[in-house]
Each structure stands twice: as structure tokens, then as C-alpha cells.
Predict the structure.
Amino acid sequence: MKKLISLLIALCLVLGLVPAMADGLEAVLAGEDTPVGQDFACVIDENNNVYWQLAVSSFDRLSEQVPEGTASAKIEVLPQNGEAYPYLYPDGAWKIFVLESEIPAWFGDESVAKITEAFEAWKSEVYSIVDVNVLLSFVNPQTIDVDMTGVSEETQALLDQWADTDSNWMVCYVRNSVPTTTQGAVGQSVANDAWNCIVNQVWTQTGEDLAGHSQVDLIASFIGSAFPGITSWEGYFGTKTGYPFEEGAQLLKAGYLYANGLYSAKQVKEFDDQYDPDQFQKLTRIADVNVSDTGSAFACLVDEAGNVYWSLGTDYVGGLIEELGLDPASVVALNVGPKQEAAVSVGTTYNCAPWAELGNGYFTTGAWEDAEAEKPAFCNEDGSATWRMNADGSIEPVGEDQSVPGGTVNPGKYTYQDGDTSWEIMLSGNGTTRMTKITAEDLAAAAAAAAEQKEPSTYFNTPAPLTEVKFIGQFPEWYMDRKSEIDELARKAYADWQDQILALVDVDSLNVTLSGMDLDYATPMSDELLAMFKEWVKIWNENAVAGSINIGISTMGYKKVGPSIWNSIDNKVLANYKSMDHEGCPGPTTSAFIAAYAFEHYGKVIDAATDDYMGSTMNDVYSAHVGSFIKDLCPNEDGSYKYQVAHDLWEAGCIPFFDGEYWYLVSGPDFDPDGNKAVEVIYSATPAELLAD
């Protein structure tokens, strides 16, 4: 009888009719709507051996452990508690899902028991790393009243320490470090719920306009504080003990947002649903950072005896003093660098009163400050004008006619062609408005000036005699008495430093990249591109944590050539790509194309968390590309650059993105020369398809 019952149960399991039960968990056959790539993920073989790894939900990687020729099944244990962020409630209900076309005949109660045992071990490890109570007890700072007249000494100290950490001791900032580090520790599912439950409460558009990414840095610092089991944070290379972003977490908990100073999160939130160009003037800046200039490449210390101290890879004076063990009072801190040259301006610029959105796709630019200036015909007598934002991003003056709906109005720079004259309209996020008149004569004069202008001064091409020396912070009396002599010593040290930099940076290759790419349309897919795409996915899959390559390479770059040199190269390359009218990362333009493609081809909806995740995977290939300009940064055994394929893909105008389930190869500028949208997903596949031989 027992044998007959066992056979009947096994038959029902195969048909997916009756779940297997063990220790409160049930096993069911996954449906079409069961998410893939979630935690807890494991593979169980026909001998009931369970293969799993903390923070790994890739079945491709887990299946590598299964003995060859052994039957196995893919398994996920998913939360069933009905909460918006289910992984923050580990004591709730969970269910076993078998991700196969049918439940294997060998899968039974013992299988469920083994999976449950592995799941409990996973849960014990994960929730010893993350303290969900920190997240669930969070009080939204937008509900906190703060003293708008000032801050205490303790809060000021937090602000100063936070500003130093966020700007001097981070490779990719806290907003990159926290999601990458937490995903690597507990997996994407748990880390995403921790991230989303706080970001969705605190993030505001007004805060983004005010603080840029600094708003997210502060939010990320609190999220990271909920992971006491993590002792090492990606991208942080300071010497603080304990959680390095604690000051940011404390500031957010106290009700503040940070933008080179402190603001009330509650007051910022009040402006969120009613964009006002004057909002930044209306916001109360509660406290400023007590900033002490710490220097940039090239920074050095000189003592009274004429000894010069510097270290390749250390730009910050505070870092030099700490690294070399010097007494700050016994040295003068100096910066040596190229003399700054005035930029060539084009056209005549007029400052205007703040712009204002009128709704329905229209906006106004205010009266000109120069009341006597000649105004164009499309403006009113005082220079104010009403404009329509068209769907294609162009603008045109409309006078009183607002009958045709326009597109979305955003801050930015727009151009209106009035016959032979161009008008550049700059609408800044803080309400400032400028209008620049550019004639054909202006363009000819600018071209002539550019032709005569010598190569821009950089750390790579400016010899010591053409540099300038600046002192940083306070200086001892003996410095001014011997300034010329000591400055010359610093210049000689700069020359030695420059020789070492030029031995490390492949300037010729960098200049080829900066000459620009001819990318008016998406690059056609080819066998060569597919091979490069597959190679990148193989490299990325070695640790499969979004953002880890980005932070790892940046950290090595910082240590090898110093933050200033790395950032200089990084910014030049990104600016070059953006000059082709391509933001190059998920955002208002690129994300829409990927999201539309994912929904059309896979029925997948890409949410904000997935979009952020994709941004991290894009940053991986971008930083790998930038790393190609630093010699011997990540060498293979034969001396070649490990991530050369990232450079090759970028130069071909192709950027890989991963959403955790599908890879997309994206190419093309935002708009082609005719103004048509040009970004395309030129290829997509699963990791298994791309990694298959």
C-alpha cells in the first residue's frame, strides 16, 4: 500500500497536481509568470545533491557544479508574503518553484527536504549580513522638521566628514558602491528590495535638480548602513574604520539632503510636484561645508629645507600627509598644473529673467537684463517670449497662439534658427535663462580663432615652464620669503611626475578616440560584432555583479595614476561620446528604446530598479574602455589588456546592457542628422545563448 501511495504521489508531482511538502515549504511547477534569476536559486540533481552559492542566481553558473551526465532541475525559492518588498520579510511564506517544462519523475519529498535545508542555510547567511529592521524602521526625512536657522556642532562635523568621504575617498561615489557591494554580498533580489524600499520613499525630482547625484549618494549611505555584515565597500579607499558612509546615513536620518551643503528634505519635497524656476532661491541652505582645498594632480609638499614630497597616485594633500607621516605645520602644500586658458566664446549672450513653464508644452523666457539691446522680432519689447516645445525636441516662438499642444518642457539648451541667425536658449534647472545670438560672421570668427589656437594645455603636453603653482590652504611664513625658489622645486618635481604619467598613459590611443567617431546611424550587426559581444559577456560573467568591473578598474586607475588623471581621461572620453548626441547610458532616451524592445520581444517590463541595474552594467563596459588607455592596468598573461574588447565595442559605437535576464547590444546616436531617433537594439540574447560554444 505504501508503495502504491508513493507511486500515486510521484505521478501527481509529475503532472504538477500535488505539491511536495516538507517543513512548511511546497514545491510547484513554475508558470510563465514566474520570475527567473531571483533568490534563492539552486540546482538539484537526481541524487538530491543541491548546488547553490551565496549571491549567485545564474543557473548557468550553478549548473557547472553538476557532474556531467547527471540529470538536474533548476529551482527557485521565492517569497510569497504579498509585501511590496518581499525579501525584507524573511519570516513570511516562501514557495519552491521548479523551473522546468515538467517536474522530474525523481523529484520527491527528499528533494524538497534537501532544497529546504539549503534554503534555510542561505537565509541564515543572507539575513546575518542585512538587518531588515534598519530598513523597515526607517523614518522618511521628508516628514522631519529641522532647525532652518542652523545646525549643531555635531551635525556640522558630520557634514564636513561626509563631504570629504564623498568627494575625496570614493572612486565611483556611494550611489555606485552600495548597490554593487550589496548585490555581491547577498544577491540582486535582496539588494534591490533594500534599495527600492528607501529610494522610492525619499527620491524627489526637486532633490535631483538641486543636488544631482548627491541626493542618491546620501540615500545610498543609509541603505548601506543596513548591511552590518559587510566590512569592505567597493570603491572606498580611505582609512576610516567601521562603516565608511555612516555620516551620510546620519544626515539623512536627521532630515537633511546634501548639495555641497545641507537642505531640509521636507522643504525640498514641497517643491516636487510644482516646478518653479525660482525654487533654488527659495530653498533654505541650512549649512555650508567647511572646505579645505586638498589639491589635485599634481600635488606635493615642500619643507623649509627644500625637500619635495609626492606620491604617484595620491592627489590629495591629506592623503600625502597621512601616507608619508609628515607634520602639516612643517610643509607647504602646492599644486602644479597647466595654466588655464580662456575659452573662445561664440556669439553675443543676453541674460534674461527666469523662464517659466506654462503647461501644454509651452514656456516663456523672461525680460532681458540689457534693456537697451536690440531684440529680435519674435520677442516682446522687453525681450520676453513665449515658446512651444515640439515633440522632436525643437522649439519655436509662438506669440499668443498656444492652440497646438507641445512636448515635454525640460531644462536644457535649445536652438532656434531665425533665417541666417541661430538663437541658443539655455534653460537651467535653477531658473537661470540665457539667449545667445550667433550669426554667420560669429561662426567664421570662432572658426578662425580655433584654427589659430594651439593645442589645449593638459597634464600630458604641458612642460614645467608653462605651468602655474598654487598653494593649498595655509602656508608658513618662510614660503613667501622664498616663493620663487620653492615654486621652482615644485615644478621640477612636476616634470618627474609627468614623465611617469606619460610612461603609463597611452596618449596616442587616447587622442585617436578623442578624434571622434562617425556615428550618424546605428552600427550594422555583423559576425565580428557578435564575437566581440560574446567575449564581453564571457568576461562580465566571471563574477556577474553589475558595477564591479566599473569600480574595480576605476580603483586600480586611481591607485596607478591618481584620481585627477583618471577622472580627466574618463571625462574626456565620455564628453567625446556625448558630442555625438548620445548620452551613452540608460536614461530618458536610451532606456526607452531598450524598454520598448524588451516588451515587444520578451513581454518584459523594465522597472526603475532594473534600469539602474542596466546602468551599472553599462558603466562596466565604459570604465573597461577607459582603462585601455592606462598601460599594464589589467594585463593578461601575454601582456595584452584583459578588457580590450570593451574598447573595441565602444569604438564601434556599441554598448552592451544587461537587465539580469537578457543582454542587449545598443548602437546609434540619440538622433541622426535629419532629427530622427536613431538608437537601436541591434542584438539581444540570454547569457546562456551568448555563452554557448
Notes: DSSP finds 24 helices and 24 strands in the chain. The radius of gyration is 29 Å.
